[in-house]
Q: What sequence folds into this?
């Protein structure tokens, strides 16, 4: 068997992802139930909360709605393949290939792809939030120079259902804004 059954009961093959089977309800639900740092933070803080905080950081930095949307979706692949800690992920080249394949399909479906500049901006914000999450939850500085945080992330436990609703609401707003921008630019 190569498929998983998603929250909305879809048979999804993470090794051969199909865009038509991606469902934001599955992504929002699963990410709201996945704990960051492999569960080692002193309280439950979800991947969905992290993604929302990344999106808010992009907005606070005045970045485009496309970059904000990319930040919201940057860990969406984890809804289908789970979260793997960075030290382990770096030793698993096949996992990274699977993750990249899912990311490509996700970004293609909802953003029509992502540029190298947008990807770099998203990665930088992901690292900034990672740094501040570890500082807040573990008292640990991941590297010597503290990156500037422009937003005020909420680093507390939040109820799963509320996080899931916030994630889907943010998705809907950004999807609408990005589609309007693409129509204005003649991309769709």
A:
């Amino acid at each position: 068997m190569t498929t998983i059954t998603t929250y909305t009961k879809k048979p999804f093959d993470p090794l051969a992802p199909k865009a038509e089977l991606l469902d934001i309800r599955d992504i929002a639900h699963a990410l709201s139930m996945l704990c960051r740092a492999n569960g080692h933070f002193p309280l439950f803080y979800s991947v969905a909360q992290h993604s929302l905080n990344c999106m808010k950081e992009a907005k606070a930095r005045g970045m485009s709605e496309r970059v904000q949307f990319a930040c919201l979706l940057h860990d969406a692949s984890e809804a289908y393949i789970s979260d793997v800690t960075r030290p382990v992920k770096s030793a698993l080249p096949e996992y990274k290939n699977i993750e990249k394949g899912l990311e490509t399909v996700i970004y293609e479906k909802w953003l029509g792809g992502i540029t190298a500049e947008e990807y770099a901006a998203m990665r930088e914000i992901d690292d900034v939030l990672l740094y501040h999450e570890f500082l807040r939850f573990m008292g640990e500085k991941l590297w010597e120079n503290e990156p500037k945080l422009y937003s005020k992330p909420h680093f507390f436990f939040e109820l799963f259902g509320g996080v899931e609703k916030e994630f889907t609401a943010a998705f809907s707003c950004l999807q609408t804004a990005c589609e309007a921008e693409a129509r204005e630019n003649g991309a769709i």
Summary: The first strand starts at residue 4 and ends at 5. The chain has a mean pLDDT of 95. The domain at 23-184 is CATH 1.10.3210.10 (Hypothetical protein af1432).
